[in-house]
Amino acid sequence: MNQFARLAIEAGPLAAFFVANSQAGIMTGTAVFMVAITIALAVSWRLERRIPIMPVVGAGFVLLFGGLTLWLQDDLFIKIKPTLVNLLFAIVLFVAHMTRRNVMKRLLGTVLSLSDDGWRTLGIRWAWFFLLLAVLNEVVWRNFATDMWVNFKVFGIMPLTLLFSAFQAPLIMRHQLPEEPAESGPAA
């Protein structure tokens, strides 16, 4: 699947959430988000015959906390979902770093080929970034109106994540392992 299709599948549910919230409020936005993320997982499965772990975890949290939001008619649950997801990712990466496990390599090893030091550095950077996102989400939902929080979720978290990812390019290039040459056939 090309990167534009992957971005559409990952960002589509968030865009649907934003539009539905702006038209009909947070409860409708949450319901639309839940349906859209389920469709996105199905499309991802259909196109690739696999679903990466991060979208599955994210979808699980959306369905759980979205369901609680709708069932209890309390938007607190959908608002704390990004905090909890980002804390979970940060904790996993911090624990992996302390126990010298290479979680980032397991998640991204099919896409990137880095030295062990590169994977460790990338992992700890992402751990701190996820922790920052959790704190930012808490600050925004606790201090601003729901519509402002939705705007932050759509136009803050995604661009910050893309920007942070782009800033990792020098680290990735510095620690990228050279590709091994393809084996040639038997000599004639």
Topology summary:
Blueprint: H1 3-24, H2 26-48, H3 53-72, H4 76-98, H5 103-108, H6 116-143, H7 146-167, H8 169-175
Structure description:
The chain has 188 residues and is an all-alpha fold. The chain folds into 2 domains: 1-71; 74-178. 80% of the residues lie in helices and 0% in strands. It contains 8 helices and no strands. It has helices at 3-24, 26-48, 53-72, 76-98, 103-108, 116-143, 146-167, 169-175. Helix 2 (26-48) packs antiparallel against helix 3 (53-72). The chain is globular. The two termini are 38 Å apart. The mean pLDDT is 90.
User: Main beta sheet, described?
Assistant: none
Q: What's the number of structural domains?
A: 2
Helix content: over 70%
Count of DSSP strands: 0
Rounded mean pLDDT score:
90
How many helices does DSSP assign? 8
- In what range is the share of β-strand residues? under 5%
Label the overall shape: globular
Task: Tag the structure with descriptive keywords.
single chain, 188 residues, mainly alpha, 2 domains, YciB, cell membrane
